[in-house]
């Protein structure tokens, strides 16, 4: 059991962040063992064709058989919305001795990539090539799902309080003030006094359960499995109940039905096969009728069903 003792200032300082580097690093789990990640099967099939383009020697050294990755690849984000280039710069600034230490911590012995002053540069070059080939084409879609998760957690926090929100992150997470407990199989137990530095929560599309820094002295950071991962690679167009389509029209009914998780207009356009400009028009109409609510998350607006919209959808389904 890993325990984080949260003081009053830490409870106030609990915050969410989205990190492209975190997703890039954790996606190595799918590259290593695609069979454990059936939700990502459509993507892992495409990934198989990309393998000749990737530096698999370096990438493979960044993850161990248990799926653990070195701490220097999961720095605590400075802002809720980090840029990948800024995160790469942090890796490049990592002292080679830290790279070697962190890789040794997950492998037991240092792999060849850990040797030499240029280790950070080799690692960033391999990760950058992997990002461009495998994740960059899908990042807007991925970010939309991650932002939808954060909006959902914020709603739970506002309606039910911090304890309910933390308890709902995972079946392996529990909170009894002032202690946040995380069960991670095989991780040595430890108790960390957060001591006023706050707690950062990172949703991930590639986490099956939870993850924390390997180093007990690492920053207070908890990675958890994001909601909505199952929708990430959907390609079929949703079809709503005929009764609902009869009232709203097929496109607006499909949009209302698709918003079980908050999503942006761009993501909804991809799911429904309707242009983004048309989707925006329909969303404005549904929101004006009180069937949707909108949440701004950084530069993006995410839409979700209101209580009235949920009630209407359920009534039509019956």
From TrEMBL:
The entry's keywords: DNA-binding, Transcription, Transcription regulation
Name assigned to this protein: Transcriptional regulator
One Pfam family this sequence matches: HTH_20
Keyword Repressor: no
One of the record's GO molecular function terms: DNA binding
InterPro entries documented for this protein: ArsR-like_HTH, HTH_ArsR_DNA-bd_dom, Metal_resp_trans_reg, WH-like_DNA-bd_sf, WH_DNA-bd_sf
Entries under CDD domains matching the protein: HTH_ARSR
Domain HTH arsR-type, first and last residues per copy: 232-318
